[in-house]
Design brief:
Blueprint: E1 4-12, E2 15-19, E3 23-25, E4 28-32, E5 42-50, E6 58-59, E7 61-66, E8 69-73, E9 79-85, E10 87-95, E11 109-110, E12 128-136, H1 144-165, E13 175-181, E14 204-207, E15 219-220, H2 233-237, E16 241-244
Parallel strand pairs: 1-9, 2-4, 10-12
Antiparallel strand pairs: 1-13, 3-4, 5-12, 6-11, 7-10, 8-9, 14-15, 14-16
Length: 245
């Protein structure tokens, strides 16, 4: 078996602003101040920027923390991926009647009291946070379908950033990380077993989305009947698993 190489090229954002449309440069990002709502049961989407150390704001429950990454060459697990550092997306949501979009414990309230920084999968303390909040109509029913619609709306919004991220020149990246997978004949085969969420609503996991840590194209572990799936180390590194809990 030949070697598989994954290159992740990171572009560090020095500043993020809100404007009429998405405009991305190697060191700065302007995001659109609005998102398209294509489902009747979602009432509104609010977008705001939270600067570092200014997280004492009231939010609805945290639905997800999302990095912004995109495939430039190859498929998940090999080729080239571009990613943004210095900026992270925090998605929150609720129903207009006050019901929070959660399954096993809400995190609504003061964001700084619920969001632990500097952890794997959470914003760095110096990151600018793009806070995207979704509000469903009062008569909406909290179920798996409503959750999926909210994730899709946010994913569509982020795709506009990803599409421009694909076009950045790789040699302008702030950092480049290369991960090589190779077969070592005669050595033991090692597998890491990871149990993921798969019960429904806000307790779900997608596999193999079109984009790293994306939504579109992903298949729910629930729809796979929670059957075991084999991933390579580079597929895992490249965002082949999208946890939605």
């Amino acid at each position: 078996m030949g070697e598989k190489v994954l290159k992740i090229k990171a572009f560090h954002m020095q500043d993020v602003t809100i404007g009429e449309s998405t405009v991305l440069a190697p060191d700065k990002l302007q995001i659109a101040g609005h998102a398209e709502i294509k489902y009747d049961d979602i009432k509104e989407v609010s977008i705001q920027l939270l600067r570092p150390h200014h997280h004492d704001v009231v939010t609805n429950t945290i639905m997800d923390v999302i990095p912004i990454s995109t495939k430039v060459l190859g498929r998940l697990g090999d080729g080239v991926t571009h990613t943004l550092t210095g900026v992270t997306v925090v998605m929150t949501g609720a129903i207009e009647n006050g019901e929070q979009m959660h399954s096993f414990g809400a995190s609504d309230g003061i964001l700084s009291e619920h969001l632990k920084l500097n952890q794997i999968g959470t914003p760095d303390e110096n990151d600018i946070i793009i806070h995207i909040d979704l509000l469903a109509h009062e008569d909406a029913v909290f179920n798996r379908q409503l959750c999926m619609k909210m994730f899709e709306v946010v994913d569509d919004y982020l795709q506009a950033i990803r599409d421009q991220l694909k076009m950045l020149v790789g040699n302008e990246a702030t950092e480049v990380h290369e991960f090589v997978e190779k077969s070592n004949e005669g050595k033991p085969n090692v597998a890491l077993i990871k149990q993921v969420a798969g019960q429904g609503a806000m307790y779900d996991t997608l596999l193999f989305p079109n984009e790293p840590s994306g939504f579109a194209g992903g298949v729910s572990i629930i729809d796979m009947n929670n059957m075991p799936v084999i991933l390579s180390a580079n597929e895992y590194r490249d965002g082949a698993i999208r946890a939605m809990v």
